[in-house]
Amino acid sequence: MSNLLNSEMYVYVLAPFGRDAALISDVLQKSGVRVRLAASSDEVAAAIPVAGAALIAEEALSENIPELASKLNSQPPWSDFPIIVLTGGGTSTAATEVEVRARAPLGNVTLLERPLRAATLISAVRSAIMARRRQYEIRDHLHERKLAEDALRSARDQLEAIVEDRTSTLRRLSIELLRVQDDERRRIARELHDSLGQYLAAAKIQVGTMALGARNGKNGNNGKVEKQSLDEVQNTLDRAIAETRTLSHLLHPPLLDAAGLASAATWYVEGFGKRSGIQTSLTLPEDLGRLSMPVETALFRIMQEALTNVHRHSGSKRVDITLARAESLVALVIRDFGKGISDETLEQFKLSGTKVGVGLAGIRERLKELGGTFQVESSPEGTTLTASIPISQESRSFVVAAQSSQIYSSFAVD
Q1: Residue pair 362/305 in contact by the 8 Å Cβ criterion
Q2: Are 129 and 11 in contact (CB under 8 A)?
Q3: Domain 11-116, what architecture?
Q4: Which helix (H) or strand (E) holds 35?
Q5: How far apart are CA 68 and CA 46, in angstroms?
Q6: CA 8, CA 19: separation in Å to the nearest integer?
Q7: At CB < 8 A and 24+ separation, what contacts does 394-400 make?
Q8: 59 vs 385: CA distance, rounded Å
Q9: Fewer Cβ within 10 Å of end Cβ, the chain: N or C?
């Protein structure tokens, strides 16, 4: 759009007969108005989009009013081009009435009767230019309003698309979460059946055999056989208790509540290395201390989920875990040396959290709840996950109340 508000607009003068055009131009230019002399009404019509006003002698309109009116009618809604017509003096006649009616299609017309004073001419022209400037102000305002409406409409469409995408993502995550829960239930059921259930079944058979022998009196004087059977039962029950403790600790390690994140992480990483065969390295700060329970739980679950992903998907033979603490931040960094995540999958996860399953999405949601951040960097040489959580004043001064030593005491073996 041309900026006509910040520049002087020209007044086109059409007075083809005599010296009127030159005299009018001289008067207006001396008063600071920019003037251009037009040779025809077609030139005036062509200048309507950029001119400030037109000053036309009445005799120049006699044959060209329809063409000029057509150009004026094609103006945009905000535009009402001002035209000043210099009429002849004298009394009204039938001819002059016909000319007045002929000028009606021109619309915004101001009539100045000749002869006229220079001051009157200058005042009329300046008023026309000011009116034209206000029209351009309205044009610019309408344009800015349209831009704002378009931007608002675009923002609304983008928000709706984002909401729809997030809703779809949450729906997929919910389905994936239900599937993961079902898989976890099946895994726990299989663990209970294959380990704990088998140990208890064996103990029941052994105790049944001993009871049958006692009823038949076969073991009356054979203390050695009876002691051997009791030892087998006790060993079986010890293994059942150990399996139960391992299973329950994996679901929620009591060390996390009783001793803190450092002890729970050390226990879990060592156990993970033994179970998976993956070489593990854990680096902890000397001054980690205790954090708030939500922060410690989140970091432990993030580490647990990340190591599970390393075992299932990366193909890495080694994983490094580093926990660092600053004055107002705690960060967990887990790096593997496997096949990495594809660029397309990683980019899609960064944009919408999709295409990576519930594991990484769950990590990001955990961190969001605590005001933390989650970064994933990957290449064919491996993947690095960085989870950072701000530490509040309460977390920095967190003191754990004395914990009871009776946690899982029902599983204790004398």
Answers
A1: yes
A2: yes
A3: 3-Layer(aba) Sandwich (3.40)
A4: strand 35-37
A5: 9
A6: 25
A7: 394/292, 395/291, 395/292, 395/295, 396/327, 396/328, 398/289, 398/290, 398/291, 398/292, 399/290, 400/260, 400/290
A8: 85
A9: C
Domain boundaries, the chain: 11-116, 253-411
253-411 has the same fold as 11-116? no
* Cα 195 to Cα 252: distance, rounded to the nearest angstrom: 19
Express as a percent the part of the chain with pLDDT over 90: 28
312: DSSP letter: I
Per-residue pLDDT tens digits for 244-284: 767 766 676 777 878 888 998 998 899 889 888 999 999 99
Q: Which amino acid is at 253?
A: P
Under 8 Å CB-to-CB from 128, ≥6 apart: which residues? 11, 52, 53, 82, 84, 110
Distance CA 365, CA 152 (A): 29
Residue 3 makes CB contacts below 8 A (sequence gap 6+) with none
Q: How far apart are the first and last CA of the chain?
A: 91
Domain 253-411 top-level CATH class:
alpha beta
Residues listed for the chain: 414
Q: pTM for the full model?
A: 0.48
DSSP per-residue string spanning 372-413? -EEEEEEETTEEEEEEEEE--HHHHT--PPPPPTTTTGGG--
CB under 8 A, 24+ apart: contacts of 358-365: 358/173, 358/176, 358/177, 358/180, 359/305, 359/306, 359/308, 359/309, 360/309, 360/385, 361/169, 361/173, 362/173, 362/177, 362/305, 363/302, 363/305, 363/306, 363/387
**Residue bearing tokens 């009013």:** 65
Burial class from Cβ neighbours inside 10 Å (0-12, 13-18, 19+) for residue 107 reads: middle
State the helix-helix crossing angle for 357-369 and 118-191, rounded to 10 degrees: 120
- Secondary structure (DSSP) of 159-224: HHHHHHHHHHHHHHHHHHHHHHHHHHHHHHHHHIIIIIIHHHHHHHHHHHHHHHHHHHTTTSS-HH
